[in-house]
Structure of LysR family transcriptional regulator:
Amino acid sequence: MNLREYQYVLKVAQLQNMTRAAEALYITQPSLSHYIARVEEELGVQLFNRLTTPLSLTPAGEKYVETAQMILELASGLKKELSEIAKGKKGVITLGMSHARASFFLPYFLPVFRRKHLFKICIIFQRNVFCTHCSGGPGHDGAGGESGGTNRSSVYL
């Protein structure tokens, strides 16, 4: 399966009409009908009840649409995140500084940086590492226990 299949089925489900869906997708109605039939054949279930006007979803079609929407949202989110990484808007930054400098600079630096970027920041104070997730929250620390004599723990700011 590919994302186009999900988009085609979702458009037919949304418009409840094969011809209008084909027009909205900029393809011919026979091509769309054939595409949907091929998806149904591959899945071994009928997604649309073609005996009703307007078209309606079968129970299998309802489940397919629900899952397809989630898949397309995940794909869109992934594409956005990868784009942010490629543009340098997201990633990991490691800062090393003394306690004195950290206590002076970080209260000013981190809040401003957090508003603009989605970076995970690892701050190394002498031999202690405190990792913060600028966009994070509980449940994903990314630090992971002892490593090379350096103490690691997570702090969410």
Summary: The first strand starts at residue 48 and ends at 49.
